[in-house]
Amino acid sequence: MNFRTQSLLWTAQRASAAVLGLCVVVHLATMIYAVRGGLTAAEILARTQGSAAWFAFYSIFVLAIVVHVPIGLRAVLGEWLGWRSPSRDAVLVLLAAVIGWMGMRAILGVFS
Amino acid sequence: MKRPNLLVRVWRGKDDGVFQEFEVPRHASQTVLDVVTHIQRTLDPTLAYRFACRVGMCGSCAMTVNGVPRWTCRTHIDKAVKIENKLTIEPLRNLPVIRDLVTDMREFFDKWAKAKGSFEGSRTRHDDFALISSENKNRKEVNKGIECIGCAVCYSACDVVAQNPAYLGPASLNRAWTLVNDERDSKTLERLRAVAGDAGCHSCHTHMSCTEHCPKQISPTAGIAGLKRAVSRAVLKGML
Q1: Measured between alpha carbons, how far is A6 from B199 in angstroms, rounded to an integer?
Q2: Fewest Cβ atoms nearer than 10 Å: which of A12, A87, B104, B214?
């Protein structure tokens, strides 16, 4: 991997961290609000099912995680295990796909 | 009142060496380098250590003192000793040990060269002097990092160097940052290319150990952050 890609990965991780910071605050605030208000699971589902806004918000949340986690793990694997070969990047691309699939599956579960 | 002697443990041998204990008389305003010199001159002449100027200019006497990387010529015993009278002196970390307290600095200085740490101007002797105001923003940025004496204290303190042997390290990146801000220098893009990526500025975790321990109060962390911004900007603009 050349220095340009490495540099872009660094930028992508910082940018995704900024998005995650916002998403986590909105997510936690919504959770606390929902629990304090005494909403049941059925009432929550009634609000999320068919809601394009929530679908878009959580899709962005998942996308940020898909970008952020593998890049961070890349540094951890390199520094802690000395794993710096191209196979590391291939495994992390796979991991990104798995995280994306699981995340979108969860979103579709409460949307549809 | 006479103060009790210092009990000094000194690293002997190479990476697989052992500690040797010495008793050294305590004096007022005594430095760690004074202690090492006393041992070498009066107790064991085979002790190997490195020093030159003794006044904090040359950067050659850095060692690990009670677990902390320090310039020994300017470190008073009173400052370094945490447990009364006990002093442990080892070579700098993250560098191969040649013998006793002497490390092989080649890797450290080779990385300065890899980071393109030498000035390359575009003017000749026939051109006028470059006039740069002391109020110039970039010049002020240069001033913050230019007093580095190359002692390798930051390199020894850096966890990223320990975990990633290819990492250029705080001193060479600080040097690169001073040159990126030097308006007379003509190799900025080549330098940004040299310091980018996994072995360069992007690997810094901002632990700030280099900044914490730098005897010249330089903040390589700030310079490295500047390099990260400069490289990202250049890559996004397609200049690199």
Answers
A1: 10
A2: A87
For residue range B5-15, what is the model confidence (pLDDT) as tens digits?
A: 999 999 999 98
Nearest by CB to B235, from A8, A75, A84: name it. Answer: A8
Report CB contact under 8 Å: A6, B196: yes
Q: What is the largest CA-CA distance in chain A?
A: 52
Question: Could you state, in chain order, the average pLDDT of each consecutive group of 10 residues for chain A (112 residues)?
Answer: 92 97 96 85 91 96 98 95 95 98 96 90
Q: Cβ of B164 and A11 within 8 Å?
A: no
Residues B82-92: b if buried by 16+ CB within 10 A, e if exposed? eeeeebbbbbb
User: How much is the pLDDT for B105?
Assistant: 97
Whether B43 and B51 have beta carbons less than 8 Å apart is answered as: no
H helices within B24-105, ranges in order? 32-38, 77-80
* Partner-chain contact B198 A84, CB within 8 Å: yes
What DSSP assignment string belongs to B148-168?
-----HHHHH-HHHHH-TT--
Torsion of CA B90, B91, B97, B103, to 10 degrees: -160
3-class DSSP assignment, residue B141 = helix
Residue B202 is classified by DSSP as: G
